[in-house]
Structure to design on (190 residues):
């Protein structure tokens, strides 16, 4: 059924694709790939509610997958179901409360929502959970700059510059210097 659904999907015959993928899922309910393909076909048919239902099922199957929870949030937002969207947003943290990835995702979401103070709280948690990476500190500094907390942002960036980061974070110093320039420019304007 899965293979047949894939053939129909390549042909763009999404009605037939959906039927085959649904039948395949009945036989193998834990098949993540088939569920994701079913969501894509439902999207192609503009059956957004059904695609959302499949994403919610996928979220149950993969409870720690932050990406799925973000997709659910975005879809609910597009559908103007804001209370449910906010519930989906909070589930990002609930999925993995002790993982920096979930707090980083929530911080980035709150920034998009222009809720910078809340973003800052999540960046602080990223800093605690990932002390050996500059990502949390840089995100926190950006939030502090946006909130015009320039002294706090400078102190945060000083922490970035004071440490020798592993090679994979070689842009950290450059990013911190750029944020310090932003602070300097904003202080001149005020």
């Amino acid at each position: 059924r899965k293979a047949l659904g894939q053939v129909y999907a390549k042909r763009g015959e999404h009605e037939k694709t959906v039927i085959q993928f649904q039948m395949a899922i009945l036989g193998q309910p834990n098949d993540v790939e088939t569920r994701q393909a079913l969501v894509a076909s439902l999207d192609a048919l503009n059956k957004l509610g059904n695609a959302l239902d499949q994403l919610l099922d996928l979220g149950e199957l993969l409870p720690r997958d932050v990406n799925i929870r973000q997709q659910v949030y975005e879809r609910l937002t597009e559908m103007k179901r804001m209370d449910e969207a906010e519930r989906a947003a909070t589930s990002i943290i609930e999925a993995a409360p002790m993982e920096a990835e979930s707090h980083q995702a929530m911080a980035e979401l709150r920034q998009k929502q222009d809720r910078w103070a809340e973003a800052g709280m999540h960046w602080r948690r990223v800093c605690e959970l990932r002390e050996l990476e500059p990502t949390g500190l840089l995100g926190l500094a950006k939030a502090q700059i946006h909130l015009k907390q320039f002294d706090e942002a400078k102190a945060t960036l000083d922490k970035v510059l004071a440490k020798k980061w592993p090679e994979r974070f070689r842009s950290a110093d450059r990013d911190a210097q750029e944020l310090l320039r932003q602070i300097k420019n904003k202080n001149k304007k005020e």
